[in-house]
Amino acid sequence: MSFHLNDRIGPLTGGSWVMIAMGVAAVFDFLDGATARLLHKFSPLGKDLDSLSDLVSFGVAPAMLVSNIMTSYGNPLTVAWIPLMIAVCGAIRLATFNTDTEQAVNFRGLPIPANAVFWIGVYGWIRTYGYPGWGVMAVLIVLVSLAMVGRFKMFSLKFKNFDIGENFSRYALIVAAILFVVFNGLSGLMWTILFYFFLSMLKRKHL
Protein backbone atom coordinates (compact mmCIF):
# COMPACT_ATOMS: atom_id res chain seq x y z
CA MET A 1 0.00 0.00 0.00
CA SER A 2 1.44 3.37 -1.02
CA PHE A 3 1.36 6.39 1.24
CA HIS A 4 1.16 10.02 0.15
CA LEU A 5 1.44 13.18 2.21
CA ASN A 6 -1.95 14.43 1.03
CA ASP A 7 -3.79 11.21 1.93
CA ARG A 8 -6.19 11.74 4.81
CA ILE A 9 -5.67 9.64 7.91
CA GLY A 10 -8.50 10.45 10.25
CA PRO A 11 -8.98 14.22 10.60
CA LEU A 12 -5.54 15.15 9.20
CA THR A 13 -3.41 14.48 6.14
CA GLY A 14 -0.42 12.18 6.27
CA GLY A 15 1.93 15.14 6.04
CA SER A 16 0.31 16.76 9.07
CA TRP A 17 0.72 13.57 11.11
CA VAL A 18 4.41 13.38 10.13
CA MET A 19 5.02 16.94 11.30
CA ILE A 20 3.14 16.34 14.56
CA ALA A 21 5.18 13.19 15.21
CA MET A 22 8.49 15.01 14.64
CA GLY A 23 7.29 17.91 16.80
CA VAL A 24 6.38 15.57 19.66
CA ALA A 25 9.77 13.84 19.29
CA ALA A 26 11.51 17.23 19.57
CA VAL A 27 9.61 18.01 22.79
CA PHE A 28 10.55 14.68 24.34
CA ASP A 29 14.14 15.06 23.15
CA PHE A 30 14.32 18.34 25.08
CA LEU A 31 12.58 16.93 28.13
CA ASP A 32 14.71 13.80 28.47
CA GLY A 33 17.93 15.84 28.40
CA ALA A 34 16.54 18.41 30.84
CA THR A 35 15.36 15.64 33.16
CA ALA A 36 18.75 13.89 33.08
CA ARG A 37 20.52 17.15 33.95
CA LEU A 38 18.03 17.93 36.70
CA LEU A 39 18.37 14.49 38.31
CA HIS A 40 22.10 14.21 37.53
CA LYS A 41 21.46 10.83 35.94
CA PHE A 42 23.77 10.19 32.99
CA SER A 43 24.99 6.96 31.43
CA PRO A 44 26.77 5.91 28.23
CA LEU A 45 23.79 3.72 27.36
CA GLY A 46 21.38 6.62 27.76
CA LYS A 47 23.57 8.81 25.55
CA ASP A 48 23.65 6.17 22.81
CA LEU A 49 19.89 5.53 23.02
CA ASP A 50 19.27 9.27 22.81
CA SER A 51 21.35 9.45 19.63
CA LEU A 52 19.53 6.45 18.15
CA SER A 53 16.18 8.13 18.84
CA ASP A 54 17.47 11.36 17.30
CA LEU A 55 18.59 9.55 14.18
CA VAL A 56 15.14 8.02 13.65
CA SER A 57 13.13 11.13 14.56
CA PHE A 58 15.32 13.85 13.05
CA GLY A 59 17.33 12.02 10.39
CA VAL A 60 15.33 9.15 8.90
CA ALA A 61 11.88 10.77 9.31
CA PRO A 62 12.85 14.04 7.54
CA ALA A 63 14.58 12.03 4.79
CA MET A 64 11.40 10.04 4.19
CA LEU A 65 9.33 13.23 4.33
CA VAL A 66 11.45 14.91 1.66
CA SER A 67 11.54 11.74 -0.47
CA ASN A 68 7.74 11.53 -0.33
CA ILE A 69 7.46 15.21 -1.28
CA MET A 70 9.63 14.62 -4.35
CA THR A 71 7.72 11.54 -5.52
CA SER A 72 4.40 13.32 -4.86
CA TYR A 73 5.43 15.96 -7.38
CA GLY A 74 6.28 13.42 -10.05
CA ASN A 75 10.02 13.10 -9.59
CA PRO A 76 11.34 9.64 -10.50
CA LEU A 77 12.37 7.22 -7.77
CA THR A 78 16.05 7.64 -8.74
CA VAL A 79 15.79 11.34 -7.78
CA ALA A 80 13.77 10.58 -4.65
CA TRP A 81 16.73 8.58 -3.28
CA ILE A 82 18.74 11.80 -2.87
CA PRO A 83 17.11 12.64 0.52
CA LEU A 84 18.77 9.56 2.03
CA MET A 85 21.81 11.82 2.30
CA ILE A 86 19.96 13.55 5.15
CA ALA A 87 19.82 10.32 7.17
CA VAL A 88 23.42 9.32 6.36
CA CYS A 89 24.89 12.69 7.33
CA GLY A 90 22.65 12.74 10.40
CA ALA A 91 24.10 9.40 11.51
CA ILE A 92 27.66 10.65 10.94
CA ARG A 93 26.91 13.80 12.89
CA LEU A 94 25.49 11.92 15.87
CA ALA A 95 28.40 9.45 15.93
CA THR A 96 30.84 12.36 15.86
CA PHE A 97 28.92 14.30 18.50
CA ASN A 98 29.05 11.41 20.97
CA THR A 99 32.86 11.31 20.87
CA ASP A 100 33.70 14.98 20.24
CA THR A 101 34.76 16.81 23.41
CA GLU A 102 34.71 20.13 21.50
CA GLN A 103 30.91 19.96 21.41
CA ALA A 104 30.43 19.78 25.16
CA VAL A 105 29.44 23.46 25.27
CA ASN A 106 28.72 24.54 21.69
CA PHE A 107 27.98 22.66 18.48
CA ARG A 108 30.13 21.91 15.47
CA GLY A 109 27.80 21.90 12.51
CA LEU A 110 24.02 21.98 12.41
CA PRO A 111 22.38 19.94 15.21
CA ILE A 112 20.15 17.19 13.85
CA PRO A 113 16.91 18.41 15.52
CA ALA A 114 17.38 21.75 13.73
CA ASN A 115 17.69 19.78 10.49
CA ALA A 116 14.22 18.29 11.09
CA VAL A 117 12.76 21.71 11.92
CA PHE A 118 14.19 23.09 8.67
CA TRP A 119 12.54 20.40 6.54
CA ILE A 120 9.19 20.86 8.26
CA GLY A 121 9.50 24.52 7.32
CA VAL A 122 10.37 23.61 3.73
CA TYR A 123 7.29 21.39 3.54
CA GLY A 124 5.19 24.28 4.85
CA TRP A 125 6.72 26.58 2.23
CA ILE A 126 5.93 24.10 -0.55
CA ARG A 127 2.32 23.75 0.58
CA THR A 128 1.94 27.53 0.44
CA TYR A 129 4.01 28.56 -2.58
CA GLY A 130 4.43 25.39 -4.63
CA TYR A 131 7.15 22.90 -5.46
CA PRO A 132 10.44 24.56 -6.54
CA GLY A 133 11.61 21.59 -8.64
CA TRP A 134 13.89 18.66 -7.91
CA GLY A 135 17.03 20.63 -8.75
CA VAL A 136 16.41 23.19 -6.00
CA MET A 137 15.45 20.41 -3.60
CA ALA A 138 18.63 18.48 -4.41
CA VAL A 139 20.78 21.55 -3.71
CA LEU A 140 19.00 22.13 -0.38
CA ILE A 141 19.43 18.48 0.57
CA VAL A 142 23.17 18.56 -0.13
CA LEU A 143 23.76 21.89 1.65
CA VAL A 144 21.79 21.05 4.79
CA SER A 145 23.21 17.52 4.97
CA LEU A 146 26.77 18.83 4.69
CA ALA A 147 25.95 21.47 7.30
CA MET A 148 25.26 18.67 9.81
CA VAL A 149 28.76 17.25 9.37
CA GLY A 150 30.46 20.64 9.06
CA ARG A 151 33.02 21.89 11.57
CA PHE A 152 31.81 25.47 11.85
CA LYS A 153 30.65 26.57 15.29
CA MET A 154 27.01 27.07 16.28
CA PHE A 155 25.79 28.04 19.72
CA SER A 156 24.01 25.39 21.77
CA LEU A 157 20.25 25.72 22.21
CA LYS A 158 20.35 24.35 25.76
CA PHE A 159 19.76 26.71 28.68
CA LYS A 160 21.99 26.24 31.74
CA ASN A 161 20.25 29.16 33.43
CA PHE A 162 17.77 31.87 32.45
CA ASP A 163 20.11 34.87 32.62
CA ILE A 164 19.32 37.21 29.72
CA GLY A 165 22.93 38.24 29.19
CA GLU A 166 24.23 34.68 28.92
CA ASN A 167 21.29 33.50 26.82
CA PHE A 168 20.61 36.56 24.67
CA SER A 169 21.07 34.64 21.38
CA ARG A 170 18.79 31.84 22.55
CA TYR A 171 16.05 34.28 23.57
CA ALA A 172 16.49 36.15 20.28
CA LEU A 173 16.06 32.89 18.37
CA ILE A 174 12.89 32.01 20.31
CA VAL A 175 11.37 35.45 19.67
CA ALA A 176 12.35 35.24 15.99
CA ALA A 177 10.80 31.77 15.69
CA ILE A 178 7.50 33.01 17.12
CA LEU A 179 7.46 36.00 14.77
CA PHE A 180 8.42 33.92 11.74
CA VAL A 181 5.65 31.41 12.40
CA VAL A 182 3.05 34.10 13.17
CA PHE A 183 3.75 35.97 9.93
CA ASN A 184 4.78 33.08 7.65
CA GLY A 185 2.99 30.08 9.07
CA LEU A 186 4.73 26.72 9.06
CA SER A 187 7.33 27.93 6.55
CA GLY A 188 8.55 30.28 9.27
CA LEU A 189 10.40 27.32 10.77
CA MET A 190 12.66 27.26 7.71
CA TRP A 191 13.49 30.96 8.22
CA THR A 192 14.08 30.27 11.91
CA ILE A 193 16.88 27.79 11.15
CA LEU A 194 18.42 30.17 8.62
CA PHE A 195 18.33 32.87 11.31
CA TYR A 196 20.01 30.39 13.68
CA PHE A 197 22.85 30.11 11.15
CA PHE A 198 23.05 33.91 10.95
CA LEU A 199 23.20 34.37 14.74
CA SER A 200 25.85 31.67 15.06
CA MET A 201 28.00 33.34 12.41
CA LEU A 202 27.73 36.63 14.31
CA LYS A 203 28.80 34.87 17.53
CA ARG A 204 31.49 32.64 15.99
CA LYS A 205 34.40 34.57 17.57
CA HIS A 206 32.90 34.04 21.02
CA LEU A 207 32.07 30.34 20.68
Any overview of this molecule?
With 207 residues, the protein is mainly alpha-helical. It has one domain (8-155). It is 68% helix and 4% strand. The chain has eight helices and four strands; from the N terminus they run ββααααβααβαα. The strands form two sheets. Strands 1-2 form a two-stranded antiparallel ribbon.
Compact summary:
By secondary structure, the chain is mainly alpha-helical.
Task: Give the C-alpha Rg.
Answer: 17 Å
Q: Separation of termini?
A: 49 Å
The number of helices is 8
Low-confidence stretches: none
Largest sheet: 2 strands, antiparallel
Secondary-structure element string: EEHHHHEHHEHH
Report the average pLDDT across residues. Answer: 86
The coarse overall form would be globular
Which percent bin holds the helix content?
55-70%
Number of discrete domains? 1
Q: Would you count the extended β strands for me?
A: 4
Helices and strands: which structural class?
A: mainly alpha
Strand content: under 5%
Query: Biggest sheet: strands side by side, in what order?
Result: 1-2
Oligomeric category: single chain
